[in-house]
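Per-record layout

source: Flagellimonas spongiicola
name: Phospho-sugar mutase
length: 568
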Amino acid sequence: MDSITSIAQTWLTDFFDSETKNEIQHLIANDSEELKERFYKNLEFGTGGMRGVMGVGTNRINRYTLGKNTQGLSNYLKKVHGNKEIKVVIAYDCRHNSDTLSKTVAEVFSANGIQVFLFSELRTTPELSFAVRHLGCDAGIVLTASHNPPEYNGYKVYWSDGCQIVPPQDGEIIAEIDSLSFEDIQFDANPDLITLIDKDVDEAFFEASLANGNFNAKGKDDFKIVFTSLHGTSITAIPEVLKRAGYNNVTVIAEQAEPNGAFPTVESPNPEEPAALAMAIAKAEEIGADMVVGTDPDSDRLGIAVRNLEGKMELLNGNQTMILMTKFLLDKYKEKGLKGNEFVASTIVSTPMMEQMAKAYGVEFKTALTGFKWIGKMIKDFPDSKFLGGGEESFGYMVGDFVRDKDAVTSTLLACEIGSDAKAEGSSFYEELINSYVSFGFYKEKLISLTKKGISGAEEIKQMLKDFKENPVETVQSSKVVWIEDYNTSLAKNVQTGEEKAIDLPKSNVLIYETEDGTRIAARPSGTEPKVKFYMSTNTTLENAADYKSVNSQLDAKLEGIVSELNL
């Protein structure tokens, strides 16, 4: 504990503001456990950049930790670009302190002689990704903690291609940051280097979103949509994009339309949680809407609810929406004539159905580690290939390559196009999903996510994953395990034959078991939250749509059996 106190005392110099110093002195005198939580480590970059609880300390988001990040990034940009004029663009979401923290970041960049484009008000993460390339910037920053609870904020770094930073750049930037002391931060802003941006970039982004997500679907006048921004940034983009695409029957949930970092009407602003969309679903039932769309605070994830076979609104999971969005894109490009260089993409913990569907269309399928930065990186790594679309199970999807991150704005438009077109043809979004199962196999997934907070939680997560690896699963619902994929060692092993194959992806803390019947179980720690996640996928054939209910029940029972076997 003495070492923690010593680290905390370094924040009592005149470099730090009086409010910060007073709080640290209070913690030293009165709350050693809280002091430990705040100073036992430095926040690190994970799959979504740096994200953490706001407050004083090295393990917290505040003007000093973000200032140090920005100083290190400034130094790195200068090393990479030399005497070239360097430009960055900064956006922020609805979270508490996002506006003031974004100004701090802009000031540090400007103090280092870097030209800054700062959005005048909150904007979506996909628009930030778009703006990096649109404005010819060398990097981009968005202040957001995505769907985390209200006490969180974060700092996501994008490179000149509009994609989040990936190795080796992330490691090089972190090394630059770690070489600094807080006193190295240059806070004295150069206002002449900070330019506020808004409507011009908005217009360009809206046009690009429409160009990629609008397929002139039939029946738009008869398609009713309920939309909620869950107090987040998508209110600045989605209603306008839908209006321009021809959707006039859009009901916005007024109680959740005003941006608010406290997220007062929901326990969690996460569209993966059914409770987050409860208000919107209730409105949809009241007015007879066809679709509900809800987005997370920075508008990169979306949740979709549609009418099921009983006519009730049902929240789909990320795998289901990803399947139908990708199929729709494949159908549209097939109508135009596929050229042979197209590809779609997903992640190692998402549904295997994506690969089966791509094979059926004769289109290449690429798989990536969890985190959308890896899908964005594919576009840069394969410049002669055309990216059509792709997503991950955690409710993220990207349409085309004009944005290099998951994009709930354009994905919302695409979902409405699918639903509107299907309804006009006497079908529905839900029925089209069932038809996909008939065509490509019925794959169903389940996610168990366990929250383990603090120092003890981090140790518990580490132990759970260690146990999962050291005590291998041998059978899953009576089906023998065939392959064990260990992404920590980059090795996949057939436990029945002894065959080994190299995994051609960067190392990652993920372990996957695959059985004889194609059932898959994956485990990994979250890169952005204090959670450990277990992903389950199973499948069977669906001979015809009429069998959907009974087969769906069988798969549900099997997934529940897997959860029971794993004691989750």
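summary: The mean pLDDT is 95. The chain has four domains: 1-40, 43-197, 204-440, 442-565.
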